[in-house]
Write a structure and sequence with these properties.
The chain is α/β, with parallel strands linked by helices. It folds into 2 domains: 2-115 and 243-310, 3-Layer(bba) Sandwich (FAD/NAD(P)-binding domain); 118-239, FAD/NAD(P)-binding domain (3-Layer(bba) Sandwich), CATH 3.50.50. The chain is built from 7 helices and 19 strands. It has helices at 14-25, 60-73, 122-126, 136-139, 155-165, 184-191, 290-310, and strands at residues 4-10, 31-33, 47-48, 58-59, 77-79, 83-87, 93-97, 101-110, 114-116, 132-133, 147-151, 170-174, 196-199, 202-208, 215-220, 228-233, 236-239, 243-245, 276-278. Strands 1, 2, 5, 6, 7, 8 and 19 form a 7-stranded mixed beta sheet that branches. The chain has a 5-stranded parallel beta sheet with strand order 10-17-11-12-13, with helices on one face. Strands 14-15-16 form a 3-stranded antiparallel beta sheet. Helix 1 links the parallel strand 1 (4-10) and strand 2 (31-33). The longest helix is centred in the last third of the chain and has 21 residues, at 290-310. The protein starts with a strand and ends with a helix. Bound molecules: NADPH dihydro-nicotinamide-adenine-dinucleotide phosphate. The site of NADPH dihydro-nicotinamide-adenine-dinucleotide phosphate has 15 residues, from helix 5.
């Protein structure tokens, strides 16, 4: 097993595999570590209908299998394992895999993604892929003319609710406080939308349904003397309570923004450390789409190739 590589890719979502395809075709002989969730967030979704090139749609896991095959076809070495620590203060960079193996890499492409936050109620797992989603742009289409709920009161929740109101018959927003945290303009947009009903001071505590989500159990003014149980009939339950980027091991190594996303020198994928690049959701709190992640993966491989040739590595 090679312990010194020219290009190490951490993470196996659309960004990581696209970086691998480009790096392999540029003869960088990339090694890619799959991480905790091989294939990334897409493996937890069902149908992907908005990735160009699949006119009939494709399932998330199938699509990621295709990405992997394409990366391997050009010589990427895909390994299972998770980066558990890094030292970017040295050259080559050091990346520790599964707390035991040290890889030395001339360039590192970080594509460890982000993870949607969930409420932590057991029904979210029970109905995963059957009415529970954390991405309206990905799954909203399945709820045309149906009723849905969006949990959260931030900009993401308002955006998702507005997007869903273009498809669904009715959109509830389940907001735990008595106000929205979102920006004024987004607040106005949801408040003036006749299809959106905001349920302030409501918490979701469970879901019900035979073969998929048919409704949600809510509690109004939870913990107060006038607490009240409220059930709503819905077909889709969307979480929009934030994402957290998977950057724990980079905290002392790279410049991150205040939420923890990796700062890059846009439009490049360069991070605050030379030779280290970031692609996909780990550096993107806004778009978070498979196709945008793939685009930055391509850029990261091109940036890495340029760095290697400029430094005669
Ligand atoms: P935020 O952290 O801004 O908002 C999260 C929302 O979810 C809050 O209303 C919060 O409630 C609620 N929430 C969190 N945890 C729970 C829970 N356990 N139960 C119920 N509700 C919960 O996250 P966003 O993803 O909305 O936004 C992240 C950042 O990205 C923000 O800075 C935002 O402005 C930005 N953004 C900008 C956009 C734009 O400009 N177009 C679009 C999308 C995001 P509470 O208020 O009570 O804490």
């Amino acid at each position: 097993m090679r312990q010194k590589v020219r290009c190490l890719i951490i993470g196996s979502g659309p960004a990581g595999y696209t970086a691998a395809i480009y790096a392999a075709r540029a003869n960088l002989e990339p090694v890619l570590y799959e991480g905790m969730e091989p294939g990334g967030q897409l493996t937890t979704t069902t149908d992907v209908e908005n990735y160009p090139g699949y006119p009939e749609g494709v399932t998330g896991p199938e699509m990621m299998e295709d990405f992997k095959k394409q990366a391997e076809r050009y010589g990427t070495e895909v390994r299972s394992g998770r980066a558990t620590a890094v030292d970017f203060s040295v050259s080559p960079k050091k990346v520790i895999i599964d707390n035991e193996l040290t890889i030395e890499a001339d360039t590192v492409i970080i594509s460890t993604g982000a993870t949607a936050k969930y409420l932590g109620i057991p029904d979210e797992t029970k109905y995963a892929g059957r009415g529970v989603s954390a991405c309206a742009t990905c799954d909203g289409f399945f709820y045309r003319n149906k009723k849905v709920a969006v949990v959260g009161g931030g900009d993401t929740a308002c955006e998702e609710a507005t997007y869903l109101s273009g498809l669904a018959e009715k959109v509830y927003m389940v907001v735990r406080k008595d106000y929205l945290r979102a920006s004024k303009i987004m607040q106005e947009r949801v408040m003036n939308n006749p299809k959106i009903e905001i349920l302030f001071e409501h918490n979701a505590i469970g879901l019900f349904g035979e073969n998929g989500v048919e409704g949600a159990h809510l509690v109004k003014r939870m913990g107060e003397p006038d607490e009240e149980n409220v059930d709503i009939a819905i077909d889709g339950f969307f979480l929009a309570i934030g994402h957290h980027p998977n950057t724990e091991i980079f905290i002392d190594q790279l410049k991150l923004d205040e939420v923890g996303y990796i700062d890059t020198e846009a439009p490049s994928t360069r991070t605050s450390v030379k030779g280290v690049f970031a692609a996909g959701d780990v550096a993107d709190s806004i778009y978070r789409q498979a196709v945008t992640a793939a685009g930055t993966g391509c850029r990261a491989a091109i940036d890495a190739e340029k760095y290697l040739s400029e430094n005669n590595l």
